[in-house]
Amino acid sequence: MLPRPPDGAGSLSLMRIVMIHALAESVPPVRVAFREEFPEAEVVNLLDEGLSLDFAGQLTPQLRRRMSQLICYCGEHGADAIGLACSFFAPVVETARDLVDIPVVSSYSPVMEEALKHGNRIGIIAAFPATLRDSDYYLRRAAAEQGRTVEPELCLAEELIPLLRTQGAAAFEARLEELVNGLAAGVDAVLLGQFSMATALTRLQASCPAPVLSGPHSSARKLKELLSVPAWPGLND
Question: Given this structure, which CATH class describes domain 109-215?
């Protein structure tokens, strides 16, 4: 299936963004983020919970192939851009860019870029050890690419996803707000490491003394920027 040409030059109304998820909890935040940041996009959420179930602390060759196959599938079936909502698979983006001829954005790159605009002391909260480890790595890497050093302040909150699943969004957001405000005291900005945390962004921004950044919102803004002037064949003929 070929991508659909726009109604006119620079039109964003028919841009199809496919977001690939490993957790069902990351789908609602993506819907919220795109509604707020890129409402012109047609967002398709592709969920494979097996990616999370089969992840045992390391990105195996088998899992890399599965994610690469999903990216190729999206590229072959009408996607104008692809975003990864599963942080474990961010490393696959570097090789996947050679497999498709459309933008592919990891869960980390856009939000790390925005975080560094606020300073060098960045707080990161995540619900999984692997996500926290990778967030620290990608933040330091983004800073090094700018010739800067960064001081991450890490907060592991493994109780958050079970809390969301057993007690619901209200309990989840209340605990997240408590942790984020505690983390904010000594940093220039707080980065929400899980996409699932983004549903609480408005609440957190209202109560937190430091800027709070969400991966889905940063990804939506980045994809909008990348697709703002689509290079459609024949568009300028």
Answer: alpha beta
